[in-house]
Design a protein that fits this description.
This protein has 256 residues and is an alpha/beta fold. It has 9 helices and 7 strands. Helix 1 packs across helix 7, helix 3 runs parallel beside helix 4 and helix 4 runs parallel beside helix 5. The protein is globular, with a radius of gyration of 18 Å.
Amino acid sequence: MRALITGATSGIGKAIACELSRRGWSLILTGRNQAALHTLQSTLLVPTETIALDLAQAEAPQQLHDFCKGKHVDLVVNNAGFGVFGAFAETDLDAELELIQVNIRALHILTKLFVQDFRKRGSGRILNVASSAGFLTGPLFSSYYASKNYVVRLSLAIAEELRRENSRVKISILCPGPVKTAFDQRAGVQFHLKALTPERVAKEAVRGVLTGKLLIVPGASIQLGLWMAKLLPEPLLSRISYHLQSAKCPECDHMK
């Protein structure tokens, strides 16, 4: 069995690579940092190939798919992604467009290309890494939350299409809450809720996708929070979300 993992050099992507390696899966790993890819490759005890790509570049998703041709990929983990923090009127447009390229466009292309491949073959699994943010509105983190809403809704729609075909191709959506990764550093925020380790999230993600689970939400507190969020009117939920987001930034006391 072979898995392709994007954003594999750190955080959840790296932890999933290690978990699949422990289960004996061969791997194809991609990320922007060639040195980090080689370092990870040297620690894994399974056949592992690497390709350094920046999925923000327009041609990168197709290049990655071409690289995988003929290698019988059984599982695609669309993990690459990042966030941009701040009020929408003030955040950097170029950074947000890069976010859209990685979080939405690259994931969309890779999902489509591999779903097409898997349907022809009659087997295959896709794990799209979204977030608990994919069910919510995120003032001060608007582009990131919107991108993860896209991932959730796209994946749910594809899952229903595959179900109606009685297809053996399966898609799963990983929706964690805060995780102890470098994500918050790149976004310029600090999480105040208790964060799960990437290793715990990876174990639940791999177990979920291999058993055909559609929605994978690690952590009972996040599951409860998402259930409760369904009961609140959207304006109130947005206000609560705003205060939670502003608490992530030590320099944002004036926003509260």
